[in-house]
Predict the structure.
Amino acid sequence: MIDHTTFAVANLEQSRAFYVNALAPLGIALLVDITREQTGGRAFAGFGAGSKPFFWIGDGSPPVSGVHIALEAASREAVDAFHAAALAAGGRDNGEPGLRPHYHPNYYGAFVLDLDGNNIEAVCHRGA
């Protein structure tokens, strides 16, 4: 089981604002900011649910290849809302909400490229 994930973004302030909006429909919120002074190097923003941050971004040069992260959504409506919120926050469509039956019959997902080109997905595995 993965405890958390972290990846670099080119502009932490802009990416923080993007993710605050894009992740809200999934029940994921900004929980903590870690400063450069606290780490002695890079700054980070931690997003999660409850009191557990599990999705982290940090300042620095993003990887050339980008990353793919899929976040579980509670419903198909939450997937739709994630996609709309991410686009409104400046993301680019990389796969509109819909069924992906090649994965399994109830795989309902949407894909958005964040401000650095990372492929962020919301997926619901429940039936309609």
